[in-house]
Design goal:
The structure is a homodimer. By secondary structure, the first copy, chain A, is mostly helical. Chain A has six helices and two strands.
Chain lengths: 106, 106
Amino acid sequence: MTDDDRVFKALADPSRRFLLDLLFARDGRTLTELESELEMTRFGVAKHLRVLEEAGLVVTRRSGREKLHFLNPVPIRQIHDRWIDKYTEHQITTLIDLKRTLEEES
Amino acid sequence: MTDDDRVFKALADPSRRFLLDLLFARDGRTLTELESELEMTRFGVAKHLRVLEEAGLVVTRRSGREKLHFLNPVPIRQIHDRWIDKYTEHQITTLIDLKRTLEEES
DNA sequence: TTGACATGTGACCGGATGGTCACATAACTT
DNA sequence: AAGTTATGTGACCATCCGGTCACATGTCAA
């Protein structure tokens, strides 16, 4: 299993993406805290966090008996850079900003 | 199945990512042309292209009996924007550019 | 219009994946 | 030391997914 394979497989599950959303909103949470946000047993959440950590999308730090989880944006940026070059990036951000502006006006 | 679920599921397979790489290098290819680049039957490739198209990562245009395939970067950029805010984007691009520079020097 | 070419469909099978549970270790508290 | 809290492990099962095949449709060229 290659590194990028681990990243994309990790992102393929909606529960794991939701965990990233939670960490994007606020970093440094424990398993138990994250578990309370999902309708799933602790074991399921722990398994998902392990997949995210092995993919490098989440990094952890131990503090006593607690394990704190942090979002790592680097692999996400690398996905972006794989299929969007500098020129396209400028076009696409302009387009998306325009779309957002139009939606706000309506 | 939500839109973003289709996108991430589509990206979870290495053959499909390779197809995106091929289209990133050169757009507007037919199924038969793409098939010759993979070690897989035509049916397998067609199935993967269908998944990519339903996810909006690939858009197609018919030309007679041929179907031309094009890469659509919009869903990729949206993945980026989901977990990387403007401030982090600046930090991360600086970091990645630095890393690239160091690797080129060594 | 006949044959070759490009693509599409539905069924099938082996392997991978998501979620749970019983059980276990380690650390804080009193 | 004892009870509670936070996390870790391995097995299990239902379901999904990747790839192939037999078969079919539509298009071009002579």
